[in-house]
Amino acid sequence: MRAIQVRRGTTTAWTASNPILALGEPGYDIDTEVLKIGDGVQRWLDLSEIGSGGGGGDGITDEDRARFTFAGVPEIFHDFVGLSSPGSAAPAVATSGQSVHWAAGYGAAPYFANGSFLALAPGGAVYWCTEDMGANVTHVAGRFVFAPNGGTAGGTACVAITDKKMTPANVPNMNMSVHFYTTWQSWAITVWVAGTGQVVIDNGNYATPLLRDAKTMYDLEAWISGDRGTFLLPNGERRYHNDARFASLTGRFAFVESLMNAGTDDFVCVVNALAATGNTRAPARV
Questions:
Q1: Calpha distance 100→222 (Å, rounded)
Q2: Which residues pair with 17 in a beta bridge?
Q3: 3-class secondary-structure state, position 144
Q4: ∠58-59-64 over CA atoms, to 5°?
């Protein structure tokens, strides 16, 4: 497998040359550990940093605490602030102190950029995963940004609740009570049945596509209580469903995924991830 080489240089070099990066071309500042993605128009100094506008120190920020819509903060919360590739190893401990693990498939490996993780290989997927949480997961969420690349809409963010530890080998025999995903163009609420695969419950296209500016934060969030599911779309819309499979397929593991289907897909950069068990208070119906 060939290593992916990203265009890189010092802060001084980038400032002096201030180039226009081609559409989707990554550029990495080795001094500040900043990654930017070109749009074919703006010069280096005018481009936004991937994941900029988020994060906040080594703990849970006041902003993140305020967005939690149930009583208290989740058992597991992981903010990827301060992580950049190369140089950052995939962290084995979440911000909240619990052990986590990482999985990758189809030639991908965890890649970190300005406090986010993403898949940077065509056809690749990167998963932030909980260990066994000791009780059924009832709440999972990821916060992410889309960054421009080739303009196709295969880049996908996904959150899931599973009955087995997430590894590529386990997927064919895994149940998922939640397999909820989005691109910048469309979304789907599905379950995953061992031996069968994905079963769609609801899906649709956004009337207004999500922004791909490398800075607008979006949340993808799901709550499960028995056979009742509440799903928060990145555009703020809520979907509600009753389905017995939410209860029968559930489990004690969760993951948050960044997927790049094709080399022209826009990047999905996950800024933070969370999971919780027990009783949760989902947003009220509006």
A1: 20
A2: none
A3: strand
A4: 125
Sorted by sequence, the CB contacts under 8 Å of residue 11 that are 6+ apart come out as 29, 31, 32
276 touches 138 (CB < 8 A): yes
What distance lies between CA 168 and its chain's CA centroid? 17
Phi-psi region of 55 (alpha: psi -120 to 50; beta: other; left: phi over 0): left
Look up the pTM and report it.
Answer: 0.77
Q: State how far the Cα of 269 lies from the Cα of 256, in Å rounded to an integer.
A: 11
**Interatomic CA distance for residues 188 and 177, integer angstroms:** 13
Q: Which residues of the chain have pLDDT under 70?
A: 1-5, 32-33, 49-74, 86-87, 107, 279-286
Amino acid at 223: W
Peptide bond into 86 cis (omega under 30): yes
Residue 22's pLDDT is: 86
Predicted pLDDT of residue 65: 47
Yes or no: say if 164 and 251 are a contact pair by the CB < 8 Å rule.
Answer: yes
* pLDDT at residue 81 in the model: 83
Omega before residue 172 within 30° of 0, cis: no
What is the Cα–Cα distance from 82 to 88, expressed in whole angstroms? 9
Question: φ and ψ at 2, to 5 degrees?
Answer: -80, 140
